[in-house]
Automatic annotation (TrEMBL):
It comes from the Bacteria. Keywords: Kinase, Transferase. One of its GO terms (molecular function) is deoxyadenosine kinase activity. It comes from Cytobacillus purgationiresistens. Its EC number is 2.7.1.74, 2.7.1.76. This is Deoxyadenosine/deoxycytidine kinase. Belongs to the DCK/DGK family.
Length: 218
């Protein structure tokens, strides 16, 4: 019996992976998709035309980058819907506004008018009854120290050169954001409780939890 059937995970489920930069979302996305034979929806990083520029000058590029991410994630949302689900998604659309746009606005690296324009577009596109929310959001959490070392280990220069203050601010905001998040059920996983890199067996207990959470009434 395959693991999807073993744990009774529906073929049409959409599971989104959330958490701060470097916490392990892409790694989790790949492992879950392999185990469940689901499709993946990844963020575009290498081909993103604004990301490098953004890290070089937040004020100049934060609005452009948010619009780019919103468009890309919305297209992915449409693709997942057209396939009738069966997806693991690397980062939720909710983090774009709840973490990134908000943080840049509140820290003064996105102007008020740009933030309001972005927010009204986001709300019109996402905060409607027509927008299909995921069946489950898996939130990955870990200490700032572990996350900083993963960012260094992964080696994207734009992130390595960004101040620790930036990552610390984001880490704090994630904690607050997830405590208030209620658009779909949330499964929280601490990165010290599994090891997908060195222990293949790590995925099964996670699937068991996923199955349990998917069965909970919304
Ligand atoms: N369970 C793990 N144990 C150790 N290192 C990990 C684990 N998961 C991810 N990593 C490493 O941490 C870094 C960031 O992981 P990644 O999945 O790219 O994070 P994200 O997509 O959240 O930014 C990568 O170098 C990856 O190899
Ligand atoms: N909405 C966003 N605003 C700014 N930066 C963002 C946004 N979404 C993702 N990013 C950045 C953060 C990382 O440098 C890369 C990829 O994220 P990761 O958490 O490593 O998958 O994009």
């Amino acid at each position: 019996m395959n693991v999807k059937n073993k744990y009774g995970i529906p073929d049409h489920a959409i599971i989104t992976i959330a958490g701060t930069v470097g916490v392990g979302k892409s790694t989790m996305t790949k492992s879950l998709a392999d185990a469940l034979n689901f499709r993946t929806s990844f963020e575009k990083v290498d081909t993103n035309p604004y990301l490098d520029k953004f890290y070089g000058d937040f004020e100049r590029w934060s609005f452009h980058l948010q619009i780019y991410f919103l468009a890309e994630r919305f297209k992915e949302q449409k693709r997942m819907f057209e396939y009738d689900g069966g997806f693991i998604q690397d980062r939720s659309i909710y983090e774009d506004t709840g973490i990134f746009a908000k943080m840049h606005y509140e820290k003064g690296t996105m102007s008020e008018v740009d933030y309001e324009t972005y927010k009204s577009l986001f709300d019109a596109m996402v905060m409607t009854p027509y927008f299909p929310h995921p069946n489950l959001l898996i939130y990955l959490e870990g200490s700032l120290e572990d996350i900083l070392s993963r960012i260094q280990e992964r080696g994207r220069p734009m992130e390595q050169q960004t101040s620790i203050e930036y990552w610390k601010e984001m880490h704090g905001r994630y904690e607050k954001w997830i405590n208030e998040f209620n658009a779909c059920p949330v499964l929280r996983l601490n990165i010290n409780d599994y090891d997908l890199m060195n222990n293949e067996g790590s995925i099964e207990p996670i699937l068991e939890k996923v199955s349990h959470f998917l069965k909970q009434p919304i």
